[in-house]
């Protein structure tokens, strides 16, 4: 089975680790090849180092190096370097960078500086985490830098004034505490899909959209020129999982992101963002809202409390994809 997934960080990574647990437990699926197209709109340069939070969360989670308690960063990491940077007055301090994690950003920045593309660098980093041995290929959505910026009110500049800040400053620095007026993916007009991205969508047996943030994770991947058309054109069924349960995101600030688009925090609104290519849609039991356009709806438990429930959820998504594929054949 060739499975292709679009993903952000924590929600995407937990779902995809569940997918791996699911396929590895089934002899008929064990040889599956999983290609993950990761969001790079969260990327940021800090202390001269290129940091790719979503790619790293995916890599550490699948490679079994993630700090489970926070969902990002290296397990049992320490903050010696960050403490020293603070002692010098180094900024910013609001973005957590562990000592082990620093090594990833240092070597990534070195390789990028030597002229390797982000795909090549990501491939090298993934070797250390044994992703290929697990049947996983991790691709950045694009090799061109794209950075999501957020338009917020600029209180100091006066009534009605706005300013654009980096996504991480809004999300991590401010805890999304001020309303987002709009999101802009800076660099997206020059971005091309990274090598292998469109092929992975076109040649997949099933395409999965984990319950990643529909606006600033999946939405940014979808805005890379060519990606949306590939999803519309692929013969593979596209199955997505709602990140919204009971009118709220399970984790994070997807509600604030949907509000910036003028949308309510509902599974229907999220499905609407995927309407032109969506074939299957998983919602929580009791939330079988009507979704138009011949989308096959299925209600299953959506909470990924531990690895087992994540594996069950991923298994449910894959089964729906396989079912839809069999009906087409
Ligand atoms: P980020 O880049 O680290 O913010 O992670 P993602 O974009 O991949 O995922 C964030 C989304 O995952 C949020 O909108 C959450 O609502 C969703 N999410 C997190 N945990 C769960 C869960 O257990 N079940 C479901 N259905 N969604 C979840
Ligand atoms: Ca992210």
TrEMBL record:
GO molecular function: LPPG:FO 2-phospho-L-lactate transferase activity; magnesium ion binding
InterPro entries found in the cross-reference section: CofD, CofD-like_dom_sf, FbiA/CofD
Keyword hit for Cell division: no
Entry keyword set: Magnesium, Transferase
Keyword check for Transferase: yes
NCBIfam families for the chain: F420_cofD (TIGR01819)
Protein name stated in the entry: LPPG--Fo 2-phospho-L-lactate transferase
Lineage: Bacteria, Bacillati, Actinomycetota, Actinomycetes, Micrococcales
Gene: fbiA
